[in-house]
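To: structure desk
From: M.T.
Subject: fold request, one chain
Message: Could you run this one when you get a chance? Sequence is below, nothing fancy, just the single chain.
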Amino acid sequence: MRNRHQDGSAGDANYGVIGSGYRTYRQPDLHIAQFILEALGDAATVLNVGAGAGSYEPVDRKVTAVEPSASMRAQRPGHLTTAIDATAELLPFADRSFDASMATFTVHQWADPAKGLREMRRVTRGPVLVLSCDPDELERSWLHAYAPEMIAVEARRYPAMASLAGALEGHVEIRSVPIPLGCIDGFGEAYYGRPERLLEPGARLANSAWSFVDPSVGERFVADLSRDLTDGTWDRRYGKLRSQPFFEGSLRLIISRP
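Reply: Done. Structure tokens follow.
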């Protein structure tokens, strides 16, 4: 397992550096949350692994959260439980401790995703949910035309859908999750119809992939996108996205049932 960063972050991204304003841009989106709640079914106890600031944790169940980054644990709102400092690959729970478990926008940052998913299955009696992105579909976004280096980084980091399914036991279902136009969970594709938001440094900082490319990539991105928004090039190419209710991008919900 890779060494943990100073703030405890255990994956490839250092949230002690990039996570300070995470909750400003990354809020749970109600449309996406419905997919998760439906898949959780009637589970009364839920484990959230790589819980971060608590996005998508159901408030009507007993939730146990695991998060190695002190920076992210500190951003959890007061109505949520305090997160346990632990990693996915070594969960400090007995077998079959929870009715369900979930991991949202996190598995691509784990040192050993397969081991972490096997741990989730070990401690879970019912469904295991993973919200992630299909690396084969990332180029569908207009971002690929402006920052191909960043998209390439994402494609390398996100595990293939087949590898995630293979690490989970039981019946595995992979659902496409359409992204709504006003999505308030600011991962890259969330701004498919609102490109101006990605000119904000904080919006890019809340997407860990930008921390893995040279700063010159971000500088070029801002310059090119600013120019194309000013002269109308972006709108001529992609303007229909501004009024498109949903974008069928790379977002996927993987559900494993025993």
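Reply (cont.): Residues 179 and 247 are 5 Å apart (CA to CA). Let me know if you need anything else for the meeting.
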